Amino acid sequence: MSRSIWKPPFVSIKLLKKCYREVNIKTWNRSTYITPEFIGRTFEVHNGMMFNKIKITTSMVGHKLGEFSFTKKICIHSG
């Protein structure tokens, strides 16, 4: 179920504070929307098993952090 339209996008206050202090930000919070303050920063987003490094660009603004850290490994069968 998606978030209600009348609510603003969810942005973690802790991540915003870390954005101004740290270069690599390690987070388990996949539901945070990417804001313009995050552009140029590197996030390490947890996918359930390991941390994936994500460099934030302008085209990622408005999406969630979890959209760029895949949780499932693609299985290719030999044929």
From TrEMBL:
Keyword Repeat in annotation: no
What's the family? Belongs to the universal ribosomal protein uS19 family.
Q: What is this protein called?
A: Small ribosomal subunit protein uS19
> Which InterPro entries is this protein grouped with?
Ribosomal_uS19 (IPR002222), Ribosomal_uS19_bac-type (IPR005732), Ribosomal_uS19_CS (IPR020934), Ribosomal_uS19_SF (IPR023575)
Where does the source fall among the domains of life?
A: Bacteria
* Pfam families (alphabetical): Ribosomal_S19
Keyword set, alphabetical order: Ribonucleoprotein, Ribosomal protein, RNA-binding, rRNA-binding
Q: What is the protein's species of origin?
A: Candidatus Hodgkinia cicadicola
> What does the record give as the function of this protein?
Protein S19 forms a complex with S13 that binds strongly to the 16S ribosomal RNA.
Record bears the keyword Ribonucleoprotein: yes
Q: Name one GO cellular component term.
A: ribosome
The record's NCBIfam families line, in alphabetical order, gives: rpsS_bact (TIGR01050)
